Each structure stands twice: as C-alpha cells, then as structure tokens.
UniProtKB/TrEMBL annotation:
Cross-referenced PANTHER family: CYTOCHROME B561 DOMAIN-CONTAINING PROTEIN-RELATED, DEHYDROGENASE, PUTATIVE (AFU_ORTHOLOGUE AFUA_8G05805)-RELATED
Database matches in Gene3D superfamilies: 1.20.120.1770, 2.60.120.230, Cellobiose dehydrogenase, cytochrome domain, Copper type II, ascorbate-dependent monooxygenase, N-terminal domain
Composition bias, Basic and acidic residues: 939-948
PROSITE patterns (alphabetical): DOMON
Organism in which the protein naturally occurs: Knufia obscura
One Pfam family cited in the UniProt record for this chain: Cu2_monooxygen
Residues in DOMON domain copies: 57-175
Transmembrane segments annotated in the record for this chain: 770-789, 801-820, 832-851, 863-885, 897-917
InterPro entries, per database record: Cellobiose_DH-like_cyt, Cu2_ascorb_mOase-like_C, Cu2_ascorb_mOase_N, Cu2_ascorb_mOase_N_sf, Cu2_monoox_C, Cyt_b561/ferric_Rdtase_TM, DOH_DOMON, DOMON_domain
Disordered: annotated segments: 726-751, 925-962
Subcellular location: Membrane
Annotated Polar residues bias: 742-751
Superkingdom field: Eukaryota
Protein name as it appears in the record: DOMON domain-containing protein
Amino acid sequence: MLLAHYATLLSRTNKFHSLLTLLALAAFAVAQSSNDLDWVPFDRGQFNGNVALDEEGNVQLFWKTGNESSTFGVASRSSGYLALGFSETGAMTGADMAVVYKDQDDNLVFENRHAEGFVTPQVSQDQENNMRLQEGHQANGVTGFVFEKQNKADCLQTQVDVAKDAWQWFIYAFSDENTFSQHAPGNMGKEYVKLGTGKSVSLNEVRDIDDTKNFTIVQPELTVPTQTTTYCYTLHKMPAGNKNYLLGERPNESSELLHHLVLYACYGLPDEYMDMLGQEPNCDYETFSNPCSGFVTEWAPGMSGRTFEPGYGKPFGTDYYEYVMFETHYNNPEGLEGVKDTASYTFLYTDQPVATEIGTLTLGDIQVEGWFLEPGKELVAHSTVCTPECTDRWPSDGITAVSVFHHMHYRGRNARVQIIRDGKEITPLSSLRDFDYGYQFSKSLDSVKLLPGDKLITTCEYDTSNDTERVPGGLPSQAEMCFAWVDYYPANSVLACSHFDMGESAENPINGTAAICLESTAISPDLYHSDFLTSSFQNLSASGDTCPAENTVSGVSGQAAVLNTCPEADICFSVNVPEQSASSGTGDIYFQLSAPVTYSWVALAQGTMMSNANMFLMYSSADGRNVTLSPRTTSGHTMPTFNEAADVSLLEGSGISDGRMTANVRCGNCNRWDTGTMSLQGSNSDWLYAHHQGSPINSDDANAPILQHDRQGGFQWDLSRATGGSDTNPFTDAATTTTTTSPSAGEGQQSWERLSTQTQMRFVQVHGTLASLAFVAIFPTGAILVRLASFRGLVWTHGGLQVFGYAVFVAGAGLGIFIANGLDYLREPHAIIGMTLLGIFFFMPFLGLIHHKVYKKVQSRTLWSYGHILTGRIGVILGMINGGLGLQLAHARTSYVVAYGVFAGLMGVVYIGAIIFGEYKRAGRSSGKAAASASVYPESKRLDRDDSGSGSGSSSSHETAI
C-alpha cells in the first residue's frame, strides 16, 4: 500500500520551517509564471471555476454548475485522447467518464464511458441524457472539449451525481495517441475539487498555518511479526497545556505491510497503563485491552493529509485528554520475515483559542466481532443503529457534521449513514458507492445538521461472491469491518453510538441486542434497552439503483424489460424474454447485436464453449447498407456452418447506421436446439461472443465463409431481469425499460479479455514454442543420449537436460492454462492432456532416483525402472501428439502445421529408433553379463552409463556393468 509522501513537509526546527517556507514561495512563483492559459482551445469566460488537475498545470478543468445540469471544460497539452471522470472515491472503479478522441477519419468522437474497475471503461448506453458534447478541439499539441452533464444520475448504475454544492473527485487520463487504451505511466491523476459554495471545514490536503507548531507521534522501530494479523499499541503523552487544538494531520511513509493506524484519545486513563509510556510496542493484541476509546484520527490506504479551515480545531489537553494510544495494524499474509517499521503521524496544532471546536463521533459496528456475512452474494448488507436515547445527549441546538470517513476491508462496496427524524427518513448524512480499499478518504460534507433525538443507521454493503463460508466481522484484514467516523461541531462528550449483541446468559443484565452510548465523562459505556433498534422507517432505494421496479412474471402485462451488456467497449448485446415465454418456458425471445462496421463479423451464441453452441452471426449485406443474420453451429473448432433448424428472423431497426451494425433478432426455438437447451427463466444463462476485425463481408449468403475470430469471450445473463412485455419487438418500443449490466465473466477470462489481440497471439505463440521445445527437442535429446552415448557423467547430463526440459514445459504449461482459462478451453483434450503430463512429469525425477538407487543394488531392472522408463516414453510421444492437437485447437496456419509435423515426425523416428537400438544392445549385453562382469570390467572401473535409461525424467538411474 502507498502512503502519502508528506515527510518533506515536516518541520521540527525553526530553521527547517524557514527552509520549507522559502521552497513554498519558490514553487508559488513558478506556478504564477506558468498561469497563462491562452493555450486552452475554448472560451474560458463561460465558466466560473477553474483548477489545474496536475502539478505542472498541463491539464486544466473548468466548470459552471447549474440547477439541473452543469457545464465542464477540460484541456490538456496532449495530442491524443483525453478523459475526465467523475468518481466517488478518486478511483477508476465506478467512475462516470467523458472521453474525446479522433477516429481514423480524423473525426472528433465524444463518448460517455463507465469503469467497472481497473479495466478499460465501457461505453455507457446513455449517450445523450447524462452527458452532451458542446464543442471539441484537437490541434497544435492540445486536446480540449466542453460538455454538459446532468447533476442527478438517472436509473443507470453507470452514472455519478455532480456534487455541485460540495466536493467532487475528478480523475483524468490523456495520451498522445488517439487509440483509447491504457494510459502511459504518469499520464493520469486525481483531484478532490470543491465545485460549489457550500461551507468547507475539513480539507483533504496539507496546508501550512501561521503561528502553529508540529509534533510527531512515533512508534519505536519494530520487526513486523510473520503472523498474518498483528495489532501493536504504544502510549504517548500529548503536548502540555490545558487546552490545545489539532489543526491538521500529515501521515508519514511506513511499511507496505501497514494495514491502518488509529490514534485513540485516553479519557480517565487507569494508572496501570502509565507504564507503557516510552516502552516498546505491545503487539500481544489478543490479550491486550485498549482502555482508550476516543477517536482522534486514522490512516488507511489512499488517505492524504488533512487540514481544518481557519477557526476550527480539535481540542486536547488536561481539560480533555493528555494521553493517546497509537494502534498499528500490520497485515502480513505471506509471512515475510525481517521487515522493520517505524510508524509515525505528524500533527499541526496551536495553543491559541479557536472559534469552533470539532469532535468525532464513532458510528458502525464498534463490537467488531460476533457478526457474519452470508457468502456467495454480489451484495450483502450489514447495519448498526445509533438510537435517539444517545443523540438526545447532544446540545439542544444539535451538531453539524462536516466530514465522514467510511471504513471497510477488501469486500466493501457501498456505505451510507441514514437519518431518521420523527419516524421519517430524510436526506442521508452520507452515501458512498464503489468503495475501494486502496482509495479511502475523509469525505467532505456540506454542513449536515443533526438534531437531538435523531436515529442514525450505518450500513455497509459487501461483495461475498467469492466466499464459500460465512465471512466474520473481525480485526484481521481477511475479515470485515463497518465504521463511519463523523467529524462535527461543536464538540461534546458523546464519543460513540451504536448497538451491541449481549448474547443470552442468566448473568447478563440485558440479553440480546442492546443500544450503546459512550461518553468521555463516563467510566464505562452505557448499555440499555431501546425500542428504536427495531422501529420501522422508510428504506432508501438500493445503492446505485434508482430504476423503477423491473417487471416479473406475474401475469400482468407491462413494459418490455431489456437487459444490456457490453463485454467490450464498442460491442454490445441485449436480450428480452416476453412474459408469456418466461411463464411457459418456451416461445419467442428477442436479442440484439450491435458493433462498429470496422468488424468483419460479430457473433452471439448460447452455450459455454464453441462446440455445439447455438450461434448467431451478423455481417454486412451485399449492398453494404443492411446486415445479414446467419444462425450457425459447429461440432468442433471448425468454421461454423448454417443452421437450417433455427427459427429466427431479422426485425425492424436492423441495419447499418452512423458507422454501426445492428441486428434485432427474434428467435422462436432458442430454449432448445439440436445440441443444447437454455431455460428462459435462468438466473445464470451462459452466452458466448466472438468477432473478427477487418474488411466487410458484404454478402446476403447466410452460409458465407468467414475468417477465424480474433477475439472471443463469455458472460452470463440473469434472464429474470430481462423478463417483461408482450411478444413484440422490444427494441423499437418506446416504453421499453433497459437495464445495463456488466458481463459476469470469470476472473481468468476477464484477465485474458483485457489483453489486446496482438498480446493474446504472442501468448499463444510463446506457449506453443515452449511446449514444442520441451517435447520435440529437449526431452527426446536427453533420452537419445542415454541410449546411444557413453561418457563419464552421462547420468547427470541426462538428468540435467530433463530437468531443464521440465522447467521449459512448466513455463509453457503455465501460459497454456492461462490461455485455456481465458478461452474456456480447459475441457478440451489438448488442455487435459497437457495438465496431465504436467502432473505426471513432476514425479519423474523422484521415480528416476529410486530406479537408480535400486538398480545399483540389484543390478537389474525392477518395477521402479519400468515405471520410470515406460512413463517417460509414453509421455514424450503423447506430448508430441498433443502439440498437433494444440495447433488444431488454435486453427494454426497450414505452414505451421506442416513444419511442426515434419520436425516432430523426424525427431519421433530418431527417438523411437534410439529406443529400439538401445533395447537391442541391452539384450545382447544381458546374455553375456556374468562373463563380462568377471573378466572385462573390474570393480574399480565401472562406467557411469544407463543401459535401461528412460525416455523422460530428470535423474535416470544407470545400469552399471562390472
């Protein structure tokens, strides 16, 4: 994990502080001298806000917010694509992006894209309502454009609201190439920008403030334990004074094993803990009980320094707290040894009064342990309640929240804090979608008012789809947490508010779930019964989904529900199942294929692999103005041929327009075809897609020859979400409701699909080359040597060659498994044989050693010998054959197949000939073995030779003659 690099800002002496001041003035002078924005290609006067997104000022953002929509302009000193993203967290995940580039015809293209993660952002289906291009430019080494974005996202989950009255994360990327692909290192960044005029108190940046002091809390150096989870604690005394104020905080560099650190305020610290002052860290966290419960600050991956606006500060001192507990959490899943760390945190403070005192309220599951998440769910929620009995202890005028820090672990996806006031839900305190563990931050709020008697519900949502067992809440990184730390003013005594599971026991004063309220003035937290833990309230809509409820099979005819997915940025597919078809399990379904005309053909198919799939190809018609629909099938990895049994028709709306091919298709028998079936009510129906980029086919022949695909993949559709409407064309129905989903491919397949076609081809070629070298060159050569050669050290030469051959094979097999997983070829004979040989050959060296040792004792072949020899010979021959199967699976060129066949055939003949010749020689020697042993070869001159050597292995034994 990366810590913010603020060490250079620390000043422990006046001299160093003066140096920093000079450096800051110099930097400011440079910035002023480069403030000329005449290079920006659009009228800057139409905006009322501007900020440089990068340190050099080469990427400039302009904005003007409005009631319904806002206008943005972005310009970069670059001559390729330029992308600006609206992000919840500063990460790519969930970002709503505006992208401009020039196509091959030098036309400017504007796209609204959405990033599901750190992958190529996909084209959003809402290209008009969400974002609209106003002007764009690319000339003289500058790219810039102006666009309008609606402030409130519509029902699509691919959009982000504009924080027009508060702070907004912007991410950007640019290139000198117009091909939209991964940016070069350094050609990207993020910036937290205040768009509106709302009141700001907490800033996610480091600022120097006049007449202030610094102090740093340092954990003494320790060696990080090798166990996965370690919590360490050190006690520290704060700067002296009755009343001081923290004004800013600056994290320092630390070990990459640091998961997070927390600083707790110690109110009424018991005397027995004073012995911890100045001592080594206490890392025996399983038996240590932290007596300090006030939250001061935390660092987690992604966080930068913070500074409060002038007039605000967090109080500390003898009137509040004098001591703090420094907690560091180390996550060492690999058990690394000898890693040393000295964690530290620097604060800016003053002993002068401030106008407004800030406090921190802890919400969420302060119990940490004792709760579990259901496994196998894309989204599962966990909530805790802060009850009115606790918030009643706030000042009568209430408090004002200025920032919130949401914290979860790796499965975290969304978080929110809801406000229930007088039994009704009002605007939430905070909502955060697309949480990313590596991009945590303190979210600035536009001064949210909280009143005594409010009920607060903190909810965290997690993705447990990769878990097979219940996920516990707990301290380890592999477990989960749910916290929301809220900074507010004016500070008061309430430190934490939540609920607690007391269990069931006769000794408990309260059984079951109890409300909890923790105050700085109390010795222990207050636990109590509360009716508000189970009271009803109006639920918010699900995170990221404000679409109307989708139609289900209820017997009531409604709008057609279309499910859309784009497995690649410019290729999209949609499906609809009419209500009647879903009810009966048979009947028509509708689907759409959409792709640019730069593709020769594009196919959508039902199934999990090419063989026996129900395919539908789209390519340009003879006149080049329409499309041809070609239903096809194949029994293997050969060119699919026309399927006469398919009941399909091309519908209205199909054709070629604006550079895209579209096929709207009705299929009457897609629930069952000759080689497969598909449930029309399936929640996980399997689909494939493939395409070939190149010249248009321009044919009306549904059986026209096609070139092999240059890319393919698979995904799943939840057809229950595509169910609705009557048996009509849903793609021309204005009342259709369309939902966009992300393709749910496996992780390995997603990794493969992220690679370019050229990279994929290189991987295939390297795999084939390495495997061929192993089985057609190295393994046979080692076996032939041991059959025909005779020299001292032959056994080690043989073994060394076979070990090297196996190493080459392992490298090739690793690539092969990655390729097969990405292409869903793991069930193909080529992949099965390859993985079988990989496993068997792993044991060959050990088998060879046993054979060698036993042979030296008994001077004849044993079961171990035959096992080693026969397995090697069969394995090498099978490996040669498997190379041919691999070429067939990859549809290799005929020249490659011929070259491999000739070379493998010649080596195979030599290999088999060497085996036969060796066995013939061995038979001759065996008949006269006794005489030869007695008179020809004295004991002291045994030859290091194997007359029964194997065809494979790493350390073959050698029959020796005396």
